[in-house]
């Protein structure tokens, strides 16, 4: 294989970088597409997460039940403490209505009813075990769920980093993303208003969840989209969470725009083809690649192409022939296969010669 280094010149407009300070004890800002952390403050330390727990509750419920399923409210659902939708025993609601009550109204009764219903024969306890199983699958290594609503418990905690991982996955669920982006909704005959003020106060805001207990402090997970780029911000124990998120999101959009590394179907080079009808084939990029980068970081991005010196015919159209990889200070930030843009059949005279040689060997 041969390697060719591509020294990239990315054209961009200057951005103003500034130091970011937040009131939160724990915080993180990530790019939703790549998962890259753009800002971090004690993000790996365990902390109480209050009602941001309900991101996992709703995400798991959507994987477990149909939104049209009907749920009967039990007495134990109505006795839970904290913020509630104030259901009555015997009320019948759909899973979708309970999701609205959980995510917009932050109803602990709605979250408990969801967990009880989706936990099947094991009820809410089985659902909580499934929450922890899903957390492990997502790579949330410092998270433990003890309930579906987020009320204080010594065995109930997470980190800002883990909550960003969860939210990134949850927002890929279209139904979840649609609900958390609503400013208002209805649960039965009751109209509810989303507690997330970012939806009104921040341009491009599209979710996701608030939380508060006296022990956890003010917790907030928010997301916003501008120009096709989505950022996710998480703060735990943040006295000034709305201001924190405004500053964090502004910081991300202003300093870390998504920059194009490679464009799908872009021409790379001609690759020699031995014994083919054509002597070479165009090599092109399989995928469009982008990465969020500061202006300074673009100077250190390197692209490396891996290709053989030649290929033997026949070559199929779209056949993978190599790889392009982009790195920043040695870390891979994007990669894509390289493919043959056209088919190159083997020459007939070569085919006949090969068959003749094989025949003579058999004789």
* Percentage of residues in DSSP E strands: 25-35%
The low-confidence runs, each spanning 5 or more residues with pLDDT under 50, are 7-17
Helix content: 25-40%
- Distance N to C terminus: 38 Å
Number of separate strands: 18
> How many distinct helices?
10
Shape: elongated
Order of helices and strands: EEEHEHEHHHHHEEHEEEHEEEEEEEEH
Strands of the largest sheet, in order across it? 1-15-17-18-13-12-16
Major sheet description: 7 strands, mixed
Brief account:
This protein is an alpha+beta fold and 363 residues long.
Keywords:
single chain, alpha+beta, 7-stranded mixed β-sheet, 5-stranded antiparallel β-sheet, 10 helices, 28% helix, 30% strand
Describe this entry's structure for a reader:
- By secondary structure, the chain is α+β, with helices and mostly antiparallel strands.
- It is built from ten helices and 18 strands.
- The chain has helices at 54-64, 75-78, 95-103, 108-118, 123-138, 160-170, 174-180, 198-201, 241-255, 348-362; strands spanning 2-7, 26-31, 37-41, 70-72, 92-94, 184-187, 190-193, 205-213, 217-226, 229-236, 258-262, 267-274, 280-285, 289-292, 301-307, 311-312, 320-328, 331-340.
- A seven-stranded mixed beta sheet has the order 1-15-17-18-13-12-16, with no helix packed on it. A five-stranded antiparallel beta sheet has the order 3-2-10-9-8, with helices on both faces.
- A hairpin with a 5-residue loop joins strand 2 and strand 3 (37-41).
- Helix 1 (54-64) packs antiparallel against helix 3 (95-103), helix 3 (95-103) packs antiparallel against helix 4 (108-118) and helix 4 packs across helix 5 (123-138).
């Amino acid at each position: 294989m041969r390697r060719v280094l591509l020294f990239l010149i990315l054209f961009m407009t200057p951005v103003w970088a500034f130091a970011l300070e937040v009131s939160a004890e724990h915080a993180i800002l990530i790019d939703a597409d790549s998962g890259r952390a753009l800002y971090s403050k004690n993000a790996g330390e365990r902390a109480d997460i209050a009602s941001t727990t309900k991101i996992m509750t709703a995400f798991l419920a959507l994987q477990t039940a149909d939104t049209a399923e009907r749920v009967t409210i039990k007495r134990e659902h109505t006795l839970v403490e904290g913020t509630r939708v104030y259901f009555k025993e015997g009320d019948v609601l759909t899973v979708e209505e309970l999701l609205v009550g959980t995510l917009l109204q932050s109803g602990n009764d709605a979250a408990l009813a969801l967990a009880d219903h989706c936990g099947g024969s094991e009820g809410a306890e089985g659902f909580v075990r499934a929450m922890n199983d899903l957390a492990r699958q997502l790579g949330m290594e410092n998270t433990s769920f003890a309930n579906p609503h987020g009320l204080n418990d010594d065995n109930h905690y997470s980190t800002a980093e883990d909550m960003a991982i969860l939210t990134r996955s949850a927002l890929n669920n279209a139904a979840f993303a649609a609900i958390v982006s609503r400013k208002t909704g209805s649960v039965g005959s009751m109209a509810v208003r989303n507690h997330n003020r970012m939806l009104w106060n921040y341009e491009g805001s599209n979710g996701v969840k608030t939380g508060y207990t006296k022990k956890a402090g003010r917790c907030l997970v928010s997301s916003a989209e501008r120009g096709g780029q989505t950022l996710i911000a998480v703060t735990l124990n943040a006295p000034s969470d709305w201001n924190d998120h405004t500053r964090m999101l502004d910081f991300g959009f202003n300093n870390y725009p998504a920059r194009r590394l490679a464009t799908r179907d872009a021409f790379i080079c001609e690759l020699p083809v031995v014994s083919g009808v054509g002597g070479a084939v165009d090599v092109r990029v399989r995928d469009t690649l982008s990465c969020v980068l500061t202006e300074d970081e673009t100077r250190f991005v390197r692209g490396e192409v891996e290709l053989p010196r030649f290929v033997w015919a026949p070559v199929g159209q779209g056949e993978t022939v190599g790889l392009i990889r982009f790195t920043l200070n040695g870390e891979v930030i994007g990669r894509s296969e390289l493919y043959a843009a056209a088919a190159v059949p083997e020459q007939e005279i070569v085919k006949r010669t090969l068959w003749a040689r094989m025949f003579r060997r058999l004789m």
